[in-house]
Amino acid sequence: MGYSGADEAGNARESLGKALEALQQEADVPEEVLAITQNVAQSIGALFEAERASTEPDGKSCVKSALGMLSQTLALLQDVKSEHNGVLTATENIADVVSVLFPLTNRPSARPEFSDSGRPEGSSPAPARASSRPPASVRSSDRPVSNKPSTGAPISSRPSGPSGVGAIPTSMLPPPAPVPSGERHRIEANLGATTQSNFYVGFTGEIAHGGVFLATYEALTKDTSVSMLVTLPGGFEFECDGYVRFVRDPMDVASESEPGMGIQFEGLSDEARALVLRFVRKRPPMFYDV
Length: 290
What we know:
The chain folds into two domains: 6-106, Butyryl-CoA Dehydrogenase, subunit A, domain 3 (Up-down Bundle); 155-287, Thrombin, subunit H (Beta Barrel), CATH 2.40.10. The protein contains five helices and seven strands; from the N terminus they run ααααββββββαβ. It has helices spanning 6-23, 31-52, 56-77, 86-106, 270-282; strands at 185-190, 198-201, 211-215, 225-232, 236-248, 260-266, 286-287. It has a seven-stranded mixed sheet. β4 and β5 form a beta hairpin. α1 (6-23) packs antiparallel against α4 (86-106). The longest helix has 22 residues, at 31-52.
């Protein structure tokens, strides 16, 4: 039995081929765009493997790999400074592909047929695995929230779309931030190369329209307003306001995602955005469907 999402993966792969063609249509491709084309090419390879996968877990793993690289690609496309006619076309095309792939990662895996030995048909005994480390708890920061002014204008004042071209549809933007009903909760998010916590982006790919997924068993309620200290490798950090946009319940046994909460950015400064982008270049962000 093959992967149930093979057809969708195949269609997505063909669409990515068009995005790659758009990015490579000029004779002299800028260096920053060339790096992005490598991401797209790797995503195409991952989807090809998904089409050929013989099991649901293998196929879903390949799709998740492609989705991670494409989330990173969308974020990097927003920061292209060079003039390139294919950037806008590729961005729209990749966003469409992401909208096809994301539901596949949430599709419940089909239950395998079991043999008399109690194992799935066609499988071999699995080696013992060490249990994974549970997500860290939310830590209230003991540091006072900085009151120093931002070094740059709020990112909301930046032009919409890659290279400042085009307007992002309202349906693709995050919802308005709730009005704080009291003092903001102070939390700390520690992000690294292998942490379960990570940045996330949506269909726009714009970092400021995303936020931080904080892996925790002690999530706050949805729409809670927070003041967040984000710490990054190398001693870098920034502070920003946000709110709890979504919560993943640790008691949801049907979910294959780690428990925690998504903190939506509110008014990310240029300095903070630059730090996020620096991190995203090294580690693909998660994708969250608006």
